[in-house]
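# step 3/5: fold
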Amino acid sequence: DVPGTDIGGASWGTEGIIVFSWGAGWSVRGGGGLFEVPDAGGASALLVKANEGEIGFTSPLVLPNRAGVLAVVNYNDRTWKVVRISKDGLREPVLDIQGSAQIAYSPSGDLLYGLGTGGLWAVPLRLSPLGITGKSVRVTEEGSAPSVTADGRLVYMPKLLSALRFVWVNQRCQ
């Protein structure tokens, strides 16, 4: 069961759960949150609700090795951040971004993010302790919606919101 139709993304973890965001801000202001549901099905449970000053969450990402859950938070002041969300609702800032983004984690140790303004970027991300360890680099000028397979293959939409085909890229960018 999903509490509505304003889904801002979902991530299937390896620990038997799916985390999804609802009320991401497009039609529900300040009423959404992150939820989890067993991958075998069942009722969803609220992980964390949007705080005062937050419009909502998008692009939840369950990190490997129990390193936590990341999400993009949209704030009332029109700023956006990638944050780690703890079970007790604490938000740990990971990365400031320029506008809406979809995020993915690569087994190479990179956090990929496709900005709503265009462009696909990668930044080194250490899982334990969690933190950015280098500078962001542009992967492609117009890519968005990144997703990475367990063996490191990248797929993304080549143009923001207008792509008609996916592009597959291996670790050698081929």
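# step 4/5: annotate
The two ends are 40 Å apart (CA to CA).
# step 5/5: archive (pending)
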